[in-house]
Write a structure and sequence with these properties.
By secondary structure, the chain is an alpha+beta fold. Helix content is about 50%, strand content about 20%. Strand 1 and strand 2 form a beta hairpin.
């Protein structure tokens, strides 16, 4: 019995480690921090704000920063509710081409309680393109993201 417990523990740690490595490999981080240092909760509050280093938290290998201790604690209780979809990469690019494209952290949309980010420059705003065909693009993005994280 003791042997089985040890074996299960080793296997669990290995699987968890693989998940962390997969996340680190595929999530968009800037200088090791997700969302370009923006506080994930502030997107849901209607105005993205930069987080602070003193309110950092690592969720399965991905570092997030928060603007307050309160936001940090809220995130800890339900991280999957606040983490960006598709590892923080452009939702439109994920849906249209299955590619990981960097984003403007202030160009976003909340859909069914989930955070989606978009590429945006002076000449291109993929959020506008996403809005034209959101249902199809989201379905394709979900499939494409699954393929990417399984590699």
């Amino acid at each position: 019995m003791k042997f089985l417990i040890i074996l299960f523990s080793i296997i669990s740690l290995n699987v968890f480690s693989q998940d962390i490595n997969t996340r680190k490999k595929h999530f968009l981080t800037e200088k090791g921090v997700a969302l370009s240092g923006y506080d994930a909760l502030t997107y849901f509050q209607g105005k993205p704000q930069k987080g602070k280093k003193e309110y950092s938290y690592t969720q399965e290998g991905i570092i997030y920063q928060f603007s307050s201790a309160s936001n940090l604690e809220t995130f800890k209780k339900n991280p999957s509710k606040y983490e960006p979809q598709y590892g923080g990469w452009c939702a439109y690019a994920m849906g249209s081409k299955g590619e990981k494209v960097e984003v403007d952290p202030e160009t976003y949309k909340i859909v069914n309680g989930k955070l989606y980010l978009f590429y945006h420059t002076f000449f291109s705003n993929t959020l506008a393109d996403w809005n034209k065909d959101e249902t199809n693009l989201k379905a394709k993005a979900d499939i494409n993201w699954e393929k990417i994280i399984k590699k």
